[in-house]
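Look over this entry.
=====
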Amino acid sequence: MSAWQGKSVLVTGGSRGLGRAIAEAFASSGSRVVIAARNETRLHGTAEALRAKSYEVSALASDITQQTQVERLVNFTVQRHGRLDVLVNNAGISARGQVLDTTPEQFRESLELNLIAVVRMTRAAVPHLLEHTGHVVNIGSLASKAAARYLGPYPAAKHAVAAYSQQLRLELGPQGLHVLLVCPGPIARDERADERYAQQLDGLPPSARKPGGGVKARRLQPSDLARDILRGCQRRQAELIRPAKARLLFTLLQASPRLGDWLVRKMT
């Protein structure tokens, strides 16, 4: 029997891309899954497609930047399944832009979804997760460990997610909570998804138009990364970095920021 059989899993940003792949991976392993996203039509379409595969998947349209909707979402999951074992904080937004052209308001908008919403969800879910030595999965980025050019407010927001994940591990790990920080490179997706950057690319070099701001790495398949996330939860890993070779860059950045900056320029 799968270790995830009968577990209750909540995935934000679960209507497409990596969030959908994570939801499907847990559901195919026997978990009961709730997916949440703001686009109600796409969300329910995803839920119906997964239920057509005989998976137990529910959906609740939610704006997780709103505290009342966060509480409603967590309560919906617990009432539906009687428990909560895994929270996947997947919802987020990337960006493009030179850092000095990025306004304080744009930084605030990025932080609201990429960090503050993670804090809201985690605070609401942790009391339930601790009852079952459960898991918090925070989807960061390679940008959680190393900033890159032309990504606007994104690296600062994702660095904050890495710090928050470590704080959770240090304070709540002894109480049984497992926290997994996932730091993936560019993820394969529908090319139309990159259209959201169209208005942010004026004046930027061609590299900024590429996935991950031009990072030289093969695109990750969402299903492969989702499978690694389940394995990381089962092993109660602290971090999951893909591609794994990026760890060397992060180590060098800590040892020598100047050398690290040189490598980031070479690799993007």
